[in-house]
Amino acid sequence: MKIDKIECTILDYPLPVPLKPSWAPGRTFKTTSCLLVRVTTEDGITGIGAGPDCGRAGLYTIADLLAPYLLGKDVFCIEQISPIIRQAAKDGSYPWSVEMALWDIIGKAANQPVYRLWGAFQDTLPVYASLAEVVPVEEQIQRLYMLKEMGFGAVKLRLRRPDINDDIRVVQQIRAEFGDTLKLMVDANQAHVMPCPNPIGAWNYEDALKVAEAMYELDVLWLEEPLPRYGLEQIARLTAATKIPIAGGELHKGLHEYKQIIDMNCYDIIQADAAFSEGIFQLRKVAALAELSYKRFIPHTWSNGIGMGANLHLAASLPNCPWFEFPIDPPAWTNESRDFMMAEPFHISKDGTITVSNKPGLGLELNEDAIRQYSRLIWSSDELKDWN
Ligand SMILES: [Mg+2]
C-alpha cells in the first residue's frame, strides 16, 4: 500500500476571546493555528494527522526533507519510515503528524481503530481538564465551578506567578473551596517558555522543593515541570527527595532523550506527545520503557483536536496510563477552539471520562468547510511530480 500524495495545510482559527497562556507570559494569542497533514495511498485511502504550526519551517520540513523520501513507500513499513521522519525532525520542525496519518491509513485498511491494533488496554479513561491561563483566584474558582458542571472531576492548574508563595496560596484557596470534590494537578511550566515579552526567571531547586512539599500537603496528584528541561541531575534529585509524583517530558525530542530521562529517574510520570516528541508508534517504545521502569506514561496533548485524538489512541493502548489530558480553558480555549477542523469536537462524558472512537483508523472526520475557511498556506506533493 504505497504513499501517493502528501498534502499540508496550515490552518488559522480565530479564538472566541484572546488566550493568555502561562507558557508565554505577556503574550496574547488571538488565533490558534496548526499544520494539517493528509497522506493518500495509491489505493485511495487518506489518513490525517496534525501538529503544531511552525509556519514555513513546518511546511519546509515535510515538503523538502520528508516527502521526496516517503512517496512510493509502503505505509505498513513504519519502522523503515520512522528513521526518515526522525532525521527530518532533527533538521527541521515537528513532522510527527505524518506518522499519525500513516496509522490512520493502516487502521482504515485493517478496518480497526488504531488503539485495538496496539493492544487495546482500555477504551475509556478518566480525564483531567488541562487549563492554560493564570488568572486571579476568584476568577479561577468560577471557572472551576463551570468545569465541574461540565463533568470534570479533575483539573490541572497552572502555576507561574512571579512569587511562588502566591502560587501556593491560590492552590490552598482552591482546595479550601472545593475540599475533596475536585482532584487537582499543577503544572509549573518551568521547563520551557515560548518567546514572549515578560519571561519570568525559572524556579531554582529550593523553589521547586518548597512548592512540591506544599502541593503534597494539599493532596495534589502531581507537580509538572518544576525545573528547566535539561537540568536532568537536579530534576532527578527533586524527584527522589519529594513524596509528590513529579511529571514532565512533554517537549523532549527523540527516543534517546526519553531513554536518558527514564534511566536517570527524572520523572515519575512521562508526558511525551505524538505531535511534539516522536512518532506515535515510536512513543509506544517510550511508554514500554516507562512501564518496565515502574513509571506512568500520560501523554501531553496540548496541540489541536487531531493531535489530541491521536494521543488518545496511544493512551488507550497502554497499561500504565491512568489519566488523559483534556485541554480546555473557556472562554478562550473551548472544545470548538481546539477541534475546529473536525466534523465533531471531542466532549467528555458526565462522569468525567472520555471514550476512544471505535471507527477504523484514528476515527476522526474533518470539517472541510472549516478547513477551506481557515486555510492560510497549502502545499501538495503533486508539485514534486511536476518537477520530475
Ligand atoms: Mg505541561
Description:
This protein is an alpha/beta fold. Helix content is 39%, strand content 20%. The model has no long low-confidence stretch (mean pLDDT 96). The chain folds into two domains: 134 residues, Enolase-like, domain 1 (2-Layer Sandwich), CATH 3.30.390; 240 residues, TIM Barrel (Alpha-Beta Barrel).
Number of domains: 2
List how many beta strands DSSP finds: 13
Query: Nearest-angstrom radius of gyration?
Result: 20 Å
Structural class: alpha/beta
Bound molecule types: magnesium ion
> Cα distance, first to last residue?
22 Å
Largest sheet descriptor: 9 strands, mixed
Please bin the fraction of helical residues.
25-40%
Q: Tally the helices: what do you get?
A: 14
Pick out the low-confidence regions. Answer: none
CATH class of the largest domain: Alpha Beta
Q: Per DSSP, what share of the residues sits in E-state strands of 2 or more residues?
A: 15-25%
